[in-house]
Amino acid sequence: MCAPVARPVQWEEVSGYDENLNTIRTYQVCNVFEPNQNNWLLTTFINRRGAHRIYTEMRFTVRDCSSLPNVPGSCKETFNLYYYETDSVIATKKSAFWSEAPYLKVDTIAADESFSQVDFGGRLMKVNTEVRSFGPLTRNGFYLAFQDYGACMSLLSVRVFFKKCPSIVQNFAVFPETMTGAESTSLVIARGTCIPNAEEVDVPIKLYCNGDGEWMVPIGRCTCKPGYEAENSVACKGKSKGLVRPLLPVHLGQGPIFEFSPPPALGQKGTEVPNGLL
Question: Is 120 contained in some domain?
Fold first, then answer.
């Protein structure tokens, strides 16, 4: 997880355990006995690296409100995920934004499983993993922000990633690495370039990159040029030719007779040419 900026005396960086009881550093907050909570945790600036849509995987634990004695009705088992686009670093510990503006809300994140004091005492971890995506992105980078408004929770890790279709050779054409589109349902067109010794036929060749980073819907194709043969649809190589020795004329009487002169022993058989009388 990127080194975050936390609002003082709210989120705390502490040592904790993952589901395998390995010691890890986490960020936690648990101010459930005080109403009107508004606690923010902000990542450092994240460069989007040309991506149009970003995915965020969050691993976290949440305390079951019903397992807390004398807790007020303001106790929550959810938190909010926000992002903010920008072209440069703008937030520090002294200048970070500690309110909903100017962030854009991605979603309210709910726990599928929560733990009680009995679970915690027995070191039974109930880790939740949630993935959310957002876009389109147009600036150089962005910040992620996590808003707690009354939960007792730990944020174990945050993984930020994007999806892309890898460079590929298909139908005797090379397609470049292509970023997925701004929406999860987007199809991005990638133009193909014929491999060496191949030429385009039919229509201009292209593939579509879908939102999961997979190639689909091939259109058009390239084929090997005359004199070249295909190799697994990824290469065009020159056709192998046998050694042919010339026909030598021998004059006998009135008409010539063409005789075949056998090739020297070169380890391969030459193309046979029949003797004949012209």
Answer: yes
pLDDT digits (tens, 9 = 90+) for 140-171: 999 999 999 999 999 999 999 999 999 999 98
Rounded distance, CA 133 to CA 161, Å? 9
- Asked if 207 contacts 170 with a C-beta cutoff of 8 angstroms, the reply is yes
Is 157 in the same domain as 170? Answer: no
As to burial, measured by CB atoms within 10 angstroms (0-12 exposed, 13-18 middle, 19+ buried), residue 276 is exposed
Q: Is residue 256 part of a domain?
A: no
Range name among 45-59, 66-80, 161-175 with the lowest pLDDT average: 66-80
254, HSE (Cβ side, Cα atoms, 13 Å): 0
Cite the DSSP H helix spans in the chain.
117-121
Number of helical (H) and strand (E) elements in the chain, helices listed first = 1, 24
- Tokens 């199809």 correspond to 187
How far is CA 114 from each of CA 61, 191, 228, rounded to the nearest angstrom?
7, 48, 64
Q: Contact at 8 Å (CB) between 34 and 71? A: no
Distance CA 101, CA 103 (A): 5
> What is the Cα–Cα distance from 103 to 189, expressed in whole angstroms?
31
Query: Which run of H or of E encompasses 51?
Result: none
Q: Which domain holds residue 140?
A: 5-161
